[in-house]
Amino acid sequence: MGTETTIMRLRPYQREAANAILDSVFGGKGLTFSIEIARQGGKNELSAQLELLLLTLNMGEAKNLIKCSPTFKPQTVISMIRLKDRLNNAGFEGIWTAEMGYIVRLGNARAIFLSADASASVVGNTAHLLLEIDESQDVSKEKYTKEFKPIGATTNVTTVHYGTAWDDSTLLEEVKQTNLELERRDGVRRHFRYDWEEVARHNPDYLAYVMGEKERLGADHPLFMTQYRLLPIHGGGGFLSAQQRAQLQGDHERMRRCREGQMYVAGIDIAGEKEGGGGEALATGNTKRDSTVVTIGEVEFPPNYEIDREPRIKIVEHYCWTGKRHTEVYGQLVDILKNVWRCRRVVVDATGMGEPVSAFLRKALGSRVTPFTFTQKSKSELGFNLLAVVNAGRIKVYKGDGSEEYQEFWQEMEKARSQYRPSQTMNFYVDPAQGHDDFLMSLALAAEAAKNYEVRSAIGRDGE
User: Fold this and answer.
1) ∠ CA 299-305-308, rounded to 5°
2) Considering Cα of 452, then 458, then 460, then 462, what sign does the dihedral take?
3) Are 178 and 254 within one domain?
4) Total-model pTM
5) Distance between CA atoms of residues 419 and 128, nearest Å
6) Is there a single domain that holds both residue 245 and residue 340?
7) Domain range spanning residue 388?
8) Are 35 and 45 in contact (CB under 8 A)?
């Protein structure tokens, strides 16, 4: 198998990066590359084809290439499976062997797959052919510097960091900026960036897919910006921009009860001893006590439902109880959700003090109630979903009525902040020094209640 045969199987942009990497490998240059390719754009295939080629050319030598990923399962396992498939496709089925659950051997050459998790032990390995850092934006800088970088020190190994953008503090971003500076000095290209538009030039199906994601998330959604546009997020900042708040503003009237034939959902943020929404404890000097907030949404479906299956949500009512024990509002909650609004789906904060409330509502209202436990991961997904529906214009709040609820709602929307974390997660909240985020969390839970809502949900009996 020749170098050209393997590389020609790649798309033009993949070949461009591959040729630069191989030039460093074969020339013993020991360069470090950063490769940003839009999500699902082929970085894993590029990696597998490089591995296939290097193993093939070095079958007779006891040399290693090493690849690490942020987690062993599923990321490292997926990389191993892909390499095994490419070896089989190349005619090596029955020739390559697996060793110790993390090594693929072809002749004397080995591909060693390691986890970059903080607890993983990697000391003692040596990379001769190539060192690959997959999803580099999610790998700890300390782990890489102390444990992975020395793996290729004695062999002057070529190193490749693959991934997508996230914020400006990641390992990948640091390597990228170093590479760009080196390029300015010596003219040798070390950073390769291929956003979704470049990938789509060579794959019409990918174009259709990404346009759907752009429609669903919005061009300025953090995930679309980082995963497809490859634009890093700079720090945190406001959760909702002025434009997004303008999109959230509706022109419909606030309502006091359901309309016949319409479908309703509710999101409930439960007051508790812990501040900050979603049961996250935050020290605060704010004298206003935490509130239980219910947000009611009327769910509408577009006329072209068979094509556009995403529901629209009109926020039509807010309820707020401050300083009341949960047991004092149980009866009122059930009556509001069951009789006043006939809610089809209720998502309720079940974290900490919210757990007994959600259990009570579940017992009283049945399967229409879905408990939501706040964790870093689930809250991040909740925030991303809210941004998506706001960006797409699929959620609107009733027009101003001069009420305290309306004023508090918009104060929270203006004060809401976002904080971006590793592994493409974020936190959203109101700084406790500036107020509470009960209305914000309740809104996000209402959007969650409408998520993946189906028209057929309206066919069954109330409470099904």
Assistant:
1) 95
2) positive
3) no
4) 0.81
5) 40
6) yes
7) 236-458
8) no
